[in-house]
């Protein structure tokens, strides 16, 4: 079990959000609550609502706030809820962090300024504002989408000022784990991309903000436990499982990751379903690949 005094540790699933098949693609809150309970029952340690996998950019403010409340209400005791608080500006991110706190969340996941290529001063100011909400902040480094790189040096500055407790590292550069540990020894490293789980797990990661446990939670949790050095990594068992799952895990780092994971959920007998625009269902060879790779994993008995 993860350290409950550090509620960002362990396997936190960046949850997909189910929509109803009506004209508005309205949010299926009951289905979402059932999915949160399902993940808890299958060994995950928490959820991260309102991330990109949860299509937060397409939600109204009312929907986004209700998703957090539903997750908190559905979570059993000891199961974490760490909402994403991404927004264009610091004030809006801080307000989402306050909403998360009022709903009962114990930590938040915060991108740097969204859609604005901020300089160092603006990035630090952004995290100062989010930290004012009073919850532990996990920084989310995704330079591919935000065009802002939370380098090890910048993370050390944020951590040294007490603004962040951990970082979801999604740069894809697994070498960074060691420099982060050197520059900010007390900063928790969380695996941010499914397809570098083993590499970051062995380098000392204490958590995983994960996509594919939405579809195959049992195998994903087993892989995390085998791959993380703090849990006593077992490479002999972890490596063959990682190889078997890796074709699916790679989708988490691709443009179509939301549709791919939802399609895999459908094939696994779970509720994936449609995405809201601008995302549409996969088609052609991309869809065929997701189906082939998911069916291969399921045929091996992984769930």
Automatic annotation (TrEMBL):
It comes from the Bacteria. GO terms for molecular function: 4-hydroxy-tetrahydrodipicolinate synthase activity. It comes from Streptomyces iranensis. Pfam families: DHDPS (PF00701). Keywords: Lyase. SMART domains: DHDPS. InterPro entries: Aldolase_TIM (IPR013785), DapA-like (IPR002220). The active site is at 140 (proton donor/acceptor), 168 (schiff-base intermediate with substrate). Its EC number is 4.3.3.7. Pyruvate binds at residue 209. This is 4-hydroxy-tetrahydrodipicolinate synthase.
């Amino acid at each position: 079990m993860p350290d409950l005094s550090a509620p960002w540790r362990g396997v936190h699933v960046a949850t997909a959000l189910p929509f109803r098949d009506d004209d508005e693609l309205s949010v299926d809150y009951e289905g979402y609550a059932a999915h949160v309970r399902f993940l808890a029952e299958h060994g995950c340690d928490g959820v991260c609502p309102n991330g990109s996998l949860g299509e937060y950019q397409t939600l109204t403010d009312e929907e986004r706030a209700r998703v957090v409340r539903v997750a908190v209400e559905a979570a059993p005791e000891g199961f974490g809820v760490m909402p994403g608080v991404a927004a264009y500006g610091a004030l809006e991110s801080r307000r989402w962090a306050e909403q998360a706190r009022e709903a009962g969340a114990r930590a938040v996941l915060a991108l740097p300024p969204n859609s604005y290529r901020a300089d160092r001063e603006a990035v630090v100011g952004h995290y100062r504002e989010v930290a004012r909400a009073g919850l532990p902040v996990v920084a989310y480094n995704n330079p591919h989408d935000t065009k802002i790189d939370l380098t090890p040096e910048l993370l050390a500055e944020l951590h040294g000022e007490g603004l962040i407790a951990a970082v979801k590292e999604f740069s894809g550069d697994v070498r960074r784990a060691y420099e982060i540990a050197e520059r900010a020894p007390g900063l928790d490293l969380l695996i941010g991309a499914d397809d570098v789980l083993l590499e970051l797990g062995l380098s000392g990661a204490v958590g995983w903000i994960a996509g594919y446990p939405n579809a195959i939670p049992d195998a994903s949790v087993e892989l995390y436990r085998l791959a993380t050095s703090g849990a006593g990594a077992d490479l002999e068992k972890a490596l063959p499982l990682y190889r078997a799952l890796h074709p699916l895990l790679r989708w988490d780092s691709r443009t179509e990751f939301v549709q791919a994971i939802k399609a895999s959920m459908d094939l696994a007998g779970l509720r994936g379903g449609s995405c809201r625009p601008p995302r549409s269902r996969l088609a052609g060879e991309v869809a065929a690949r997701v189906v082939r790779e998911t069916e291969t994993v399921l045929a091996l008995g992984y769930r």
